[in-house]
């Protein structure tokens, strides 16, 4: 079974530029999560989807971050404009059902904002 | 759990010995706990989970212990191997159904 796929693996941008990350969850997984992991810390949930609907985006900085999962499968996370403090690894995870199953993580996208 | 920034707690263990990694969680309403292993350049990988109505759960070479009285979770790894070197995170699911990750512990296996 293929795991959670994320791209790109690495991205370097200058502050005030925009960037987008892509995630393809495990086939059949209805729930998709985006996490931000700052160096030396545990992952922090940004947004959670159930199919194509947002379940929780309370920790998403909505003035600059946006995410969508239009067809209930793939998802994109966008930052516009980026700030220095956005430098982190952005992890995507998926689970079969909402909060009832183990979350499986992708390898993440490492973002450096200069 | 609280973040300690770049200063991750560390644990060094001799190859073949047992490792015990501890975690204090914050929410007494949490009903589910998970341990994840994260190797360099990879996403967190599920190790073992436990529900709040249990005190202990065993897997292959791993055991998780839950003490709800003091809100403490531990992960025991038997006969540690070089491949066990990683950062280990505990995570709790609280009343809001969100998974909250604690401060990781870096485990280093000494050959």
Task: Describe the overall structure.
- The complex is a heterodimer of chains A (114) and B (111).
- With 114 residues, chain A is mainly β.
- Chain A has a single domain (5-113), classed as Immunoglobulin-like (Sandwich), CATH 2.60.40.
- Helix content of chain A is 0%, strand content 48%.
- Chain A contains no helices and eleven strands.
- Chain A has strands at residues 5-7, 10-13, 19-24, 31-37, 44-50, 53-56, 65-68, 75-79, 88-95, 104-105, 109-113.
- In chain A, the strands form two sheets. In chain A, strands 2, 4, 5, 6, 9, 10 and 11 form a seven-stranded mixed beta sheet that branches. In chain A, strands 1-3-8-7 form a four-stranded antiparallel beta sheet, with no helix packed on it.
- In chain A, a hairpin with an 8-residue loop joins strand 9 and strand 10 (104-105).
- The N and C termini of chain A lie far apart (37 Å).
- The model of chain A has no long low-confidence stretch (mean pLDDT 94).
- With 111 residues, chain B is an all-beta fold.
- Chain B has one domain (10-110): Immunoglobulin-like.
- Chain B is built from no helices and ten strands.
- In chain B, strands 1, 3, 4, 8, 9 and 10 form a six-stranded mixed beta sheet that branches. Chain B has a four-stranded antiparallel beta sheet with strand order 2-7-6-5, with no helix packed on it.
- In chain B, strand 3 (32-38) and strand 4 form a beta hairpin.
- Mean pLDDT of chain B is 90; it is low at 1-6.
- At the A-B interface, strand 5 and strand 10 of A face strand 4, strand 8 and strand 9 of B.
Topology:
The complex is a heterodimer of chains A (114) and B (111).
Chain A: E1 5-7, E2 10-13, E3 19-24, E4 31-37, E5 44-50, E6 53-56, E7 65-68, E8 75-79, E9 88-95, E10 104-105, E11 109-113
Parallel strand pairs in A: 2-11
Antiparallel strand pairs in A: 1-3, 3-8, 4-5, 4-9, 5-6, 7-8, 9-10, 9-11
Chain B: E1 10-14, E2 19-24, E3 32-38, E4 45-51, E5 56-58, E6 62-67, E7 72-77, E8 86-93, E9 99-101, E10 105-110
Parallel strand pairs in B: 1-10
Antiparallel strand pairs in B: 2-7, 3-4, 3-8, 5-6, 6-7, 8-9, 8-10
